[in-house]
Amino acid sequence: MIEIVEVGPRDGLQNEKRTLTPEQRFEFIKHLSASGLKRIEVGAFVSPKWVPQMEGSLQLVTEIYRRRDEFAKTVQFSALVPNVKGMLDALTTPLKEVAIFGACTESFSKKNINCTIAESFERFEQVIAMARKHKRKVRAYLSVAFGCPYEGAVPEKRVIDLILKLAKLGVHEISIGDTIGVATPKQVRSLLKKLKSRLPLTKVAMHFHDTRGTALANVLASLEAGVEVFDSSFGGLGGCPYAKGASGNLATDDLVYMLEGMGLKTGVDLNKLLSYSARMQEEIGHKLPSRTAEAGVPRLVT
Amino acid sequence: MIEIVEVGPRDGLQNEKRTLTPEQRFEFIKHLSASGLKRIEVGAFVSPKWVPQMEGSLQLVTEIYRRRDEFAKTVQFSALVPNVKGMLDALTTPLKEVAIFGACTESFSKKNINCTIAESFERFEQVIAMARKHKRKVRAYLSVAFGCPYEGAVPEKRVIDLILKLAKLGVHEISIGDTIGVATPKQVRSLLKKLKSRLPLTKVAMHFHDTRGTALANVLASLEAGVEVFDSSFGGLGGCPYAKGASGNLATDDLVYMLEGMGLKTGVDLNKLLSYSARMQEEIGHKLPSRTAEAGVPRLVT
């Protein structure tokens, strides 16, 4: 069984131009749950001044738990918390998992979360201490692990050090992100091979972008290395903020197509999942970049 | 060194709605050659009644050899010949390689080349005999090897038998096609593993479509099995005739991006290659499906 962490409602939607209402997002998440996705990141406790697309995340999460019986019993929700203030919001909800977000380069950290890497780790410690006290799990995103839009190539050693540092802080999972979609399988293999001797890969999720078509090849390289958790976004929602018109997040549809085609169970009903594509395209106002959403599921795959 | 067989001017353009003039195709092929592509399929000797997009292929090939010094010395051209009539045309040119086209299912064979598989092999024998007499190499395409739009799943044993039968006829290379873009790496690995003990994989090229985003993952699986020749189409030209709006041929741009990023030399200058994307989009009248054409080459890849 491969775990898919569906990041469309958060990472996907927060990079879309059009803002969906909390009601629209609620319906979307309900559909994702009904399609068999087991882990869904539903929102971010951030200021709507910074990320208007995530406005009403607290209201949304509260509503999800108020109507919890409308979702699959087995589905788990999480939300992004950038700081103590966000964590305080999260603690007013029954959310069992929160996520923190860091970067592998100073430039990306400053531009994206407005602090140095060292400062971000101070925030992480505070958030993790609060989470531990209240028995919430913490997932960590480590972005630009394979390349940075500002600094270019990123030293592998630094990436490994940051992963190990995050693991030491006590997060249950580190999602290693190819934020600008530049990774190739060689890089992925090399990183995971070196990491493997220092950290059990059960602690690792891979977060690929399909900006240059390599996402599923990188998934394959990761599977071969032993990774069993992958992030993806419904329909490839989100695009790439660093290349206008380009694809961003790996589409959940494409990921499920490949995994199921390889006999790896995801629990996702692909036809059911795709039945929401037309509605989402209308809501966000453009075609989704997913390949499978366009082509459909062939009859031969069961 | 990995060999790329550029099929954009033939397989790509013949599946585009808009027909390019032989002059436009000449300029396109010149650009492909200048970008470092070493093997280019430039046209098809078929009736323009059946494939209007390939009209003027004889004129085009003749012009290419008349102005041979405008192309890289090392580039090799080929053209599709469906039958004896096409082969007679090819023999009026200095083309050193021709290609024949067969299928793994009776339905696809009948709908695509208007004969049974057995009849297609009779044609192949005639064409190959003529080619041998005139010292031309023959490449064979074997389509719908991983799934058929009419018959669904295709038995692996039949695919292997057809490959071996083609090899026995004396073709120098068999291009195994995932014509509708349904293959996953598991299928690819399984086929190549079984094939390997019967035929040197130097005789094999893989021809993937990116209809469900799996093309580069399938390339990776093929590389791991030992394949060193891949077909692709500039910008992903061609689309998928079996799913409206969906992607077809793997884009050469994406293939080169991944291979070069893995340290595998292709001889192709990716920035140079992409410099023609805007012009091609104008000529064919729509956006190219290539991911890399949209996102561009990041600075970190050298």
How is the secondary structure organized here?
The structure is a homodimer of 302-residue chains.
Chain A: E1 3-6, H1 8-12, H2 22-34, E2 39-44, H3 57-66, E3 76-80, H4 84-91, E4 97-103, H5 106-113, H6 117-133, E5 137-143, H7 156-169, E6 173-177, H8 185-196, E7 204-207, H9 215-225, E8 229-232, H10 252-261, H11 270-274, H12 277-284, H13 291-295
Parallel strand pairs in A: 1-2, 1-8, 2-3, 3-4, 4-5, 5-6, 6-7, 7-8
Helix pairs in contact in A: 2-3, 8-9
Tell me what the structure shows.
The structure is a homodimer of 302-residue chains. Chain A is 42% helix and 14% strand. Chain A is an alpha/beta fold. Chain A has a single domain, classed as Alpha-Beta Barrel (TIM Barrel). In chain A, strand 6, helix 8 and strand 7 (204-207) form a beta-alpha-beta unit. The longest helix of chain A is centred in the middle third of the chain and has 17 residues, at 117-133. Chains A and B meet through helix 8, helix 9, helix 10 and helix 13 of A and helix 8, helix 9, helix 10 and helix 13 of B.
